Amino acid sequence: MSNSTMLAIWLGIVIVTLVIEIITQGLTTIWFSIGAAVAAVSTLWDPPIWVQIVIFCVLSVLIMLLARPIAKRMMQSNITPTNIDRLISEKAVVIKEINNKKGSGQVSVRDLEWLARSEDDSVIEKGETVTILRIEGVKLIVKK
Length: 144
Fold this sequence. Notes:
Layout: H1 3-24, H2 30-42, H3 49-76, E1 91-99, E2 104-109, E3 112-118, E4 129-136, E5 139-143
Parallel strand pairs: 3-5
Antiparallel strand pairs: 1-2, 1-4, 2-3, 4-5
């Protein structure tokens, strides 16, 4: 294959992976965009195709392994904890039987009523005390 063909292929990969990254916004393909861009630049020196592929693969994987954890940490640092996070580990009283299979269950905590589901799909009777493990949307995930 000619250099101009390989350059077009690498630039096509850059465009496709960038579009996927823009759509997903999950740091999934940006690494391949960088690897393809460097492989495209390498075509200026006319290396064999296998060298370009090695450059693409090694660089993409290397950047993903080194930069992804840092980038993810930076993205997650923008999450602002709310007062609702304080409910985790608190005790709540079941005011309506928790039955995941029926999609039912309510608890009372801090004089507020919340939908609730059990962590292990066990049925928890009305009046029992549970511990709040986490919050998923508008539901508290609890255990006995």
